[in-house]
Design goal:
Oligomer: single chain
Largest sheet: 2 strands, antiparallel
Strand order of the largest sheet: 1-4
Mean pLDDT: 90
Number of domains: 2
Helix content: 40-55%
Structural class: mainly alpha
Number of helices: 6
Strand content: 5-15%
Number of strands: 4
Bound molecules: zinc ion
Length: 179
């Protein structure tokens, strides 16, 4: 995680900042709920990967939202651990006492990132939308949740709804272009 990635969420919700934005796909009241429902039925298989980019994007936003709202993103967030720099991974301080830095755990958390499965999901969204900001925003969310820095009631988590809006808008525009 680097600082250039820590602005993605704010960037994505900037257009709705200060507005009443009460749509939520999680309540089945998304701005493009009918579109997302249609895509889910027609492009997402019951199991496994979808065969189209839009299907993968819809599957991905669903998986990411599901873990966020149901599990507090605990499956999506991966802890990166390294040997404790104080006891060099022995867990001890001196001969017998537990290391005060790692508490005897031997390793310490050095960063939080997206678990590889959810990373792949976030990539599918960025790929379909042709904008890596969406991918970076999910990485940023994982980092914030890992640091207990995510306010679940805050407007900025609305970026998941904004992401579902963007997937819908992209598909609708493509569809009309060929109609
Ligand atoms: Zn230690």
């Amino acid at each position: 995680m680097n600082y250039s990635e820590m602005t993605s969420i704010n960037e994505l919700i900037a257009p709705i900042q200060g507005q009443q934005y009460e749509y939520s796909y999680w309540d089945n009241k998304g701005k493009y709920q009918k579109t997302i429902d249609y895509l889910w039925i027609h492009y997402v298989p019951e199991q496994g990967e979808a065969s189209s980019e839009v299907g993968e994007a819809v599957r991905a936003i669903n998986r990411l939202m599901y873990d966020f709202y149901n599990n507090g993103f605990c499956n999506a967030v991966n802890e990166e651990r390294e040997d404790c720099p104080s006891c060099y991974g022995s867990g001890y301080e001196g001969d017998e006492d537990d290391c005060s830095y790692c508490g005897g755990d031997c390793d310490v958390v050095t960063d939080y990132n997206l678990d590889s499965y959810y990373d792949k999901m976030a990539r599918a969204i960025g790929k379909y939308l042709g904008d890596s900001t969406y991918y970076h925003a999910f990485r940023e969310l994982a980092y914030r949740v890992g640091h207990y820095d995510a306010d679940f009631d805050s407007e900025y988590i609305k970026f998941m709804d904004v992401t579902a809006d963007a997937i819908s808008e992209k598909w609708l525009s493509t569809r009309f272009a060929y109609a």
